[in-house]
Amino acid sequence: MYISLTNAPDAAERARPAGPRGARTVSSTVVTLGIVSLLTDISSESVAAVLPLYITGVLGLSTIAFGVLDGLYQGVSAVVRIAGGYASDRLDQPKWVAFTGYALAAAARVGLLFASGFAAITAVVTADRIGKGIRTAPRDALIAGSSEPESLGRAFGVHRMLDNIGAALGPLIAFVILLIVPDGFHIVFTASLAFALIGVLVLGLVVPNVRTRPARRAADRGRRAASRRFAWRRLWSGRMRRVLAGAGILGILTIGDGFVYLVLQARSDFAAQWFPLLYVGTNVVFLAFAIPLGRLADRVGRARVFVVGHFALLGAYAVAALAIDDLVATVLCLVFLGAFYAATDGVLAALAAETTSPQTRATGIAAVQTVVAVTRFVSAAGFGVLWYALGREPAMIAVAVLLAVAIPVAALVLRPFLSATGRAVS
After folding, report:
1. Can you name the CATH fold of 27-211+231-418?
2. CA angle, 121 as apex, 115 and 122 as ends, to 5°?
3. Is the pLDDT of residue 21 over 60?
4. Whole-prediction pTM
5. What pLDDT is attached to residue 263?
6. Longest dimension (CA), the chain
7. Measuring CA to CA, which residue among 158, 163, 162, 191 is closest to residue 177?
8. Radius of gyration of the chain (CA)
């Protein structure tokens, strides 16, 4: 049954845990959104797990083409992320803006059943990622609006944990399908569509529309309407600029997981045989670390965990590039990548949420996510060219060296946040 909270003056408060338990629990809204993300990630990650092989093997495209497509997968959502966040804040309808994005991504799954060339795959990936761009900031605003400020890291950690259960199940389902039907890529795409549609239904029927602006008396409506005119200068304040800059510096050196897995596959019989399960391994590690690192971020500071988490990414690059035993290299890469995402994904959203006001929360989160998406698009496309020009190991070593330089630079940019705990920086 749909639970309507849209007209309640204290909707956000009622969605939060009551009393002193607030620091130790998360709201039912966060859990339900996690289930929606779980279903959606089963859909998207079952496709993502087979896409590198489908593109380079079945369609016979080059690594440059894969780099472009992987860059689109990582970054095309940047086109609409701020628009999605702004629409959520402007209309005060985060649920329905998010619903639009989830529905568009589900519709894009239909295109996978018919796409058979570079142009068609590009169109499908673009539509899917635009849907992701629309939905992500409003969804994260719902999470933040349903949570106590001091437990934002934990709330995002719980959501990302559920999200990554789906991200682990998706590749596992794809692996089983391809194990039974070796050329069953279209069966994977059909299953992906089914899970996406179920996720859209759960969001529309169950998740409450937690509003960021409480209802006010009629006499205050004029001032409320005026407040809807966005205070862009407040959003792009010095503190927010530092978060955007730090995320961008590190994002430009975050290549897609698919490239790391392709490097492992090229030299490892183990990685080649179990390719779709590499995504499962990464997400299982993410699942294990999401809540503990979210709690740690609340205690010691979100920016600190975010920056330090990139050392795990550096470790993954180093292991992929060096001559290490096949099985050991594969396992280490999966552990490092999972730990990296657990330390950065939800933690960065929580950092953006604490840096903005409730009225600009979705747009602030979207701005940070846009920077990450754009820089990762550039990174993936650039790495495809670098691989083609230098070879896989030299290209990976070059990116690792640059990331080693970028981490302290980003720490310097985020220095005012590094001495703070999970509470907002004054």
Report:
1. Growth Hormone; Chain: A; (1.20.1250)
2. 145
3. no
4. 0.66
5. 81
6. 71
7. 191
8. 21
Angstrom distance (rounded) from CA 126 to CA 191: 20
Alpha carbons within 13 angstroms on the beta-carbon side of residue 53 total 25
d(CA 189, CA 127): 15
Q: Give the Cβ contact number of residue 56 at 10 Å.
A: 17
CB burial of residue 419 (10 Å; 0-12, 13-18, 19+): exposed
Looking at residue 149, the DSSP 8-state letter turns out to be G
Those residues with Cβ within 8 angstroms of residue 232's Cβ, 6 or more apart along the chain or in another chain? none
Spans of all domains in the chain: 27-211+231-418
Closest CA relative to residue 64, chosen from 383, 343, 337: 383
Place of tokens 């605003």: 141
Task: Indicate if the pLDDT at residue 222 is higher than 80.
Answer: no
Report the C-alpha gap between 193 and 111 in whole angstroms: 10
pLDDT digits (tens, 9 = 90+) for 72-100: 766 666 678 778 888 888 888 889 999 99
CA distance 318 to 283: 20
Nearest to 114 by CA among 102, 101, 103, 127: 127
Cβ-count burial of 238 within 10 angstroms (0-12 exposed, 13-18 middle, 19+ buried)?
exposed
Q: Are 170 and 43 in contact (CB under 8 A)?
A: yes
pLDDT over 80 at 185, yes or no: yes
